[in-house]
Amino acid sequence: MQYYGIDIHKKYSTYTVVDEQGKIMSQGKIDNKIESFRQITSQAEGGSKAVIEATCNWYYIHDLLEGMVDEVTIAHPMRTKAIAAARVKTDKIDATTLAQLLRADLIPTSYIAPPEIRELRELIRYRASLVRIRTRVKNKIHAILIKNGKSSIHSDIFGKRGRAWLSSIELRPVYRLSVDGYIQLIDFLNQQIKPVTHEIDLMAKSDLRAQLLETVPGIGHYSAMLILAEVGDFSRFPTAKHLVSYAGLNPSVHASGGITRYGRITKQGSSWLRWVMVEVASIASRHSSRLGHLHSRIAYKHGNNTANIAVAREVLTICYHMLRKGESYKE
What we know:
The protein has three domains: 2-103, Nucleotidyltransferase, domain 5, CATH 3.30.420.40; 130-205; 213-325, no CATH class. It is built from 13 helices and seven strands. The chain has helices at 34-41, 58-66, 77-83, 91-103, 115-147, 160-168, 173-205, 208-213, 221-231, 240-246, 271-287, 289-302, 304-325; strands at 2-8, 12-18, 24-31, 48-53, 71-75, 251-256, 259-265.
């Protein structure tokens, strides 16, 4: 058995190959092309395993290696660093450390989502990125209005009446040019967002799990599909607490000398799942008496932000049990 530790970067990768006794068989640096990886794996005899860290381009490297070695493992980067902390750090040392940890079966692995889940994630995140860009553009217009002391009587200045008001107000030429340009950019972004939203809506309507999630107050087509895309297989979490931890919504714990202190949430795991659950929580607490009572009780003692996190944690727990049991939400 041969073990490949691969430290990947955007344009190249550094690899180390060790045998079952931990002896280094070869090391080197290659570009991230299929021919290069095929060349270093073609000499493997008696089976082979490879490990890479979950970096920005792990999808591509993982799919390349999948047909070349017997098993590909994705290492959790933060936990791997905790195991193999070193004062001297180079690409070769990292690759060797990965290979030796793989040989000793000490790699803290990351979940490898199947291709269809990865594609769904990309679609969901693409829409989210467009919406965030549109929000930044809208904020630019609000900033221009503040600079010029303009305030609208319309709650939505980007609606039909608000647009008419934006076109009618007097602004200096440079600001008028900016506002008109930003409005055109918003219209263009709306055109890009519309077909993506339609595609996500169609997927949600044909997915039974999404239909179950949408029975929860605050969860719509988009948020349901985002939850499903980020979690993937719910059964991989033995308990709801594990899922909450994956979303980074669990509080940090400091226990020493019999004294336990709870701090801020860890924010480790899926930032997208954590974000959507907080968004859902702000709506759910207004439309559910049960969740609204939870929000009010915690907000009274700890403030609105802490209450939103608590509701987000509760909603995610509810979603976990709903999908595991195949039941809809019950107030």
